[in-house]
Amino acid sequence: MTDQNKERLDSQIDALLEKMTLHEKIGQLNQQQGPKTPDEIEELKEQIRRGEIGSILLASGATAGNDRQGRINTELYELLQRIAVEESPNGIPILFGRDVIHGHRTVLPIPLAQAASWDFETVERCYSDVAEEAAAEGVHWSFAPMLDLCRDPRWGRIIEGAGEDPLMGCMMAKAVVHGFQGKSLSDKSLLVACAKHFVGYGASEGGRDYHRTEISDYSLYNYYLPAFRAAIKAGSETVMSSFNDINGQPVTSSRKYLTDILRGNLGFKGLVVSDYDAIEQLIRQGVAETPEECAAMALNAGVDIDMFDRFYLNELENAVNNGKVSVETVELAVKRVLRVKLAYGLFENPFRRLSSYDREQHIKHARKLAADSMVLLKNDGLVLPLSPNINVAVLGPFLYERRALLGSWTLDGKAEETRCFAEALGERAGFGKLWLGSGEKREKIPDEADVVVLALGESEKLTGEAHSLSNITLTSDQLELIRRAKESGKKTVGVLFCGRPLAMTGIADMMDAVLYAWHGGSCTADAVCDILFGDASPCGRLPVTLPRLATHIPLYYNVTSSGRPVNCYYNENPQCCYEDSIPTPFYPFGYRLSYTSFDISEIKVRQYRLSIEQLRNGESFEFSVTVKNTGNRQGTQTVQLYIRDTSASMMRPLRELKAFRKLSLNKGESKTATFFVSLDMLGYYIPNGEYVLEKGKFEIYIGENCLTENFVQIYVD
Questions:
Q1: Which residue spans within 53-102 are E strands per DSSP?
Q2: What CA–CA distance (Å, rounded) separates 555 from 153?
Q3: For a surface tag, which of 287, 292, 366, 477 has the fewest beta carbons within 10 Å of its beta carbon?
Q4: Complete edge-to-edge strand list for the sheet that includes strand 95-98
């Protein structure tokens, strides 16, 4: 925004504030959910006429992502907007928000699966599509992206983020914010983004949703904040505060997190909205006794909008009169709300809606992203891609599943418009014979079948908000089906339709090939067929670790070493980990197989030493590897660069992903992947939030997953 435009907006805002009563100002800070009954509709109309509603959440309930919401009643919301601009005291339009998490009519793969594509240009393009579809139904504001780093796959909401790695979170943040907001918010095809949940929600103890968290300042700055820093740099207009506590301090009432860190350290200047009912929860969290206390604590901490619980509307005037909140603090929050509405163009066009969009193009983009997200984990005997004219039997409970393929947090995608796996298979030619099972628990495996494909997975109802699991494996019925397929002696392919990382013992070791298909959205079934039959080559990579057993959690790649050492991930001293199980991951971060093979050369280094001063002046280390497709077909290789600081003032991770290059290579083709390692990749944050770079030795690893041993040493003087 130019200085001239900022001055113009500030002038408009100041003029509005002069006309508003304290009650009307507080009304702009009040967000209510969409009404469901005639009485609720009439009550909301009257509130709007009194200037008591600033924004409306187009959904019902704290866990709306697990329940179909029905269509958006655009006629009703246009009527409510008309009342706001024509009958409310100051004619201020309403901002309509919705949880547009990973699609609208066209549903994309769950965000965790999107991260598995390692293709954030495609992710950005797909979120531009999503914005168009939502904007066509009058949505202004999406409560996404979710940027919670998660190291515990028992947590159901792991589906909404990018996994265990800070860089992946940063890439997702940038892609979604740019996809939603584009270059100008006044464009009718765009949405206001909301980076959430600030901060630490993904560290819920034991993977139990809504539970407490313990996060050191060191971990906060180095692991949990980078994605939010990236979202703010990308221009996210809004942030949602998290309702978890950190070290006994609820974020909703924490000036440390919402003002000192978010606005001070990260430089955020936009609007902060609470999570659903979070301000009322301060009483249950034991830090407030009355609704007035809750309202005062949240606003003083830095929460601008109260989502749903009406504590601001009902209590802030008393809090001001009692000296617990200043008028200036109220007005500062109102200014942030008005600034978003003005920047979005609501005052000029309060009824803005996109008139049309190209749904066929959206489907095409979603199908590509779904295919590129799928991870080939195992392919013994090269059973995939399926050979022409073979006899294939397809069994399993997800053969006819539609709703689960969309995943959790799907408010507007329609299961009835989603093809099931059986339908997609039925349209494929080239089989010798195809048997489609009934989906029942115990089905006979046809003797004539050459290959058995098992459609397995987890229901969308077992993932998402308020849906944590203690046992992250398949059901006993599915494990029994795998066992029987194994005993049949036939080649067995498992297709896993999942919303989280599963513990893979008893699954991957029992089958010849395994394709991790995730909950891939509207185009899941067709994308799976694209992979199985070789129309598309698998190129997805794990953005999370797949453990052997749930009891090994937490298990993540960017771990520090202990003094003994006893690091389980890198197998430093496995006998010190567990007496009764293998401690290493079943599949590590960054892992995947392909339908072709690749060779990655040793690392070439341009310079082995640079001084801190040189790095501060913009110089960087340069590394390159040559990547060759040594197989018999086209494929994509994602080359990853990891860094280890071998000696620092604080313990540093054994590996940290800092960059990657995704290369498409034809048969026999070679390409060079070049990386530049700069100051911002070599340092780290100390507990006070200061970024430091220290002298010493660094190891640079370049390969195809976090376990690569292809490395060189460099020195910072």
A1: 55-57, 95-98
A2: 10
A3: 477
A4: 141-142, 95-98, 55-57, 30-33, 306-307
DSSP-derived letter for residue 272 is E
Is residue 395 in some structural domain? yes
Question: Which residue, 83, 85, 81, is CA-closest to 73?
Answer: 81
| Neighbouring C-beta atoms of residue 711, cutoff 10 Å | 17
| 523 and 385 within one domain | yes
One domain, residues 395 and 539: yes
Phi and psi at residue 436, in whole multiples of 5°? -105, 120
CA atoms of 100 and 176, how far apart (whole Å): 11
Going by pLDDT thresholds of 50, 70 and 90, the confidence category of residue 264 is: very high
User: Cβ neighbours of residue 73 under 8 Å, at least 6 residues apart?
Assistant: 34
Residue 467 lies in a domain: yes
412 occurs within a structural domain: yes
**For residue 516, which phi and psi values (nearest 5 degrees)?**
-85, 100
Q: Which two tokens stand for residue 511?
A: 């089958």
Taking CA atoms, 347 is separated from 270, 344, 353, 378, in Å, by 18, 8, 14, 55
How far, rounded to the nearest angstrom, does the alpha carbon of residue 577 sit from its chain's CA centroid?
Answer: 31
Per-residue pLDDT reduced to its tens digit, 624-655: 999 999 999 999 999 999 999 999 999 999 99
Distance CA 618, CA 100 (A): 39
Asked if 480 and 607 sit in the same domain, the reply is no
In percent, the amount of the chain with pLDDT more than 90 equals 91
Q: Which of 552, 577, 612 is the last residue of a domain?
A: 552
Please report the pLDDT score of residue 65 as a whole number.
61
Query: What b/e string do you get for 594-604 counting C-beta neighbours within 10 Å, with b at 16 or more?
Result: bbbebebeebe
How many domains does the structure of the chain reveal?
A: 2
Number of neighbours of residue 644 by Cβ within 10 angstroms: 17
Q: Is residue 454 classed as helix, strand or coil in its secondary structure?
A: strand
Instruction: Mark whether 358 is an active-site residue.
Output: no
| R_g of the chain, CA atoms, integer Å | 26
The owner of tokens 């914010």 is 177
Q: How far apart are CA 280 and CA 10, in angstroms?
A: 32
Tokens 């168009």, located at residue: 132
Last residue of a domain, one of 497, 532, 552: 552
DSSP class of 629: E
Same domain, 632 and 544: no
Name the residue range of residue 403's domain. Answer: 374-552
pLDDT at 64 over 60: no
Task: Determine the longest span between alpha carbons in the chain, in angstroms.
Answer: 82
Report how far residue 301's alpha carbon sits from residue 241's, in angstroms, rounded to the nearest whole number: 11
Pair of tokens at residue 301: 């901490």
Q: What is the mean pLDDT of residues 187-214?
A: 96
Three-class DSSP labels, 103-165: ECCCECCCHHHHHHCCCHHHHHHHHHHHHHHHHCCCCCEECCCECCCCCCCCCHHHHHCCCCC
Q: Which of 129, 275, 372, 512 is flagged as catalytic?
A: 275
CA distance 366 to 543: 19
Does the pTM of the predicted model rise above 0.90?
yes
Per-residue buried b or exposed e for 315-352, using 16+ beta carbons within 10 Å of the residue's own CB: bbbebbeeebbeeebbbebbbbbbbbbbbbbbeeebeb
Task: Tell me the pLDDT band of 394, cut-offs 50, 70 and 90.
Answer: very high
Query: What tokens appear for 410 in the block?
Result: 């799907």
- Which H/E stretch holds residue 168? helix 166-181
CA 147 from chain centre, in angstroms, equals: 6
Cβ atoms of 337 and 28 closer than 8 Å: yes
Least confident of 13-17, 67-71, 381-385: 67-71
Query: Residue written as tokens 């490395």?
Result: 711
